[in-house]
Amino acid sequence: MFSFSFSASGGMALQSDKEEKLKENIIHILMTSIGERAMRRGYGGGVEQLVHDPNNDALRAVVQHQIAKALTQNEPRIILQGVNVNQTDGTLTAMLSYLVRQTQLPQNLSIPIGLGGI
Q1: C-beta separation of 12 from 18 below 8 A
Q2: What is the DSSP code string of 28-93?
Q3: How many structural domains compose the chain?
Q4: Residue 88 domain-assigned?
Q5: How far apart are CA 114 and CA 37, in angstroms?
Q6: What is the span of the domain harbouring residue 81?
Q7: Within 10 Å of residue 99's Cβ, how many Cβ atoms?
Q8: What angle do CA 4, 81, 53 make, to 5 degrees?
Q9: Of 29, 2, 25, the residue nearest 15 (C-alpha)
Q10: What is the CATH number of the domain that holds 32?
């Protein structure tokens, strides 16, 4: 989930490519609690706070709304095209469709939201 890792040989830091970094940032936004950042109180998706609520259609609608709102407000590099939240075996999965604003390339991202998050 970080923008860099270390090479197999040891000492050299490697950066994620731009698309991977963008996906990491999207996940970071969604898993950050709203109000967690002192200087940006509105930053975050707050979806992890909702996982203890009853898993029903209303919860999935709230999660879908929270995700759309968080990404629209906090990630200017994408144009969000769709958010679908589904339940499988007690775990919510958010399926995101978006365009990378700079390249206009469509992307999809599946994010499991449940006990332990991703």
Answers
A1: no
A2: HHHHSPTT-SSS-TT-S--GGGGTTS--SHHHHHHHHHHHHHHHHHH-TTEEEEEEEEEEETTEEE
A3: 1
A4: yes
A5: 22
A6: 13-113
A7: 15
A8: 80
A9: 2
A10: 3.10.450.40
| Cα–Cα distance, 104 to 20 (Å, whole number) | 16
CA torsion through residues 84, 46, 60, 2, sign? positive
Digit-by-digit pLDDT tens for the chain (118 residues) are 444 555 556 555 555 588 899 999 999 999 888 888 788 888 888 887 777 777 788 888 999 999 999 999 999 999 999 999 998 877 889 999 999 999 999 999 999 887 444 4
Amino acid occupying residue 77 = R
Domain annotation covers residue 4: no
Asked if the structure places residue 45 within a domain, the reply is yes
Is residue 5 in some structural domain? Answer: no
77, 61 Cβ separation under 8 angstroms: no
The token duo for 38 is 């002192």
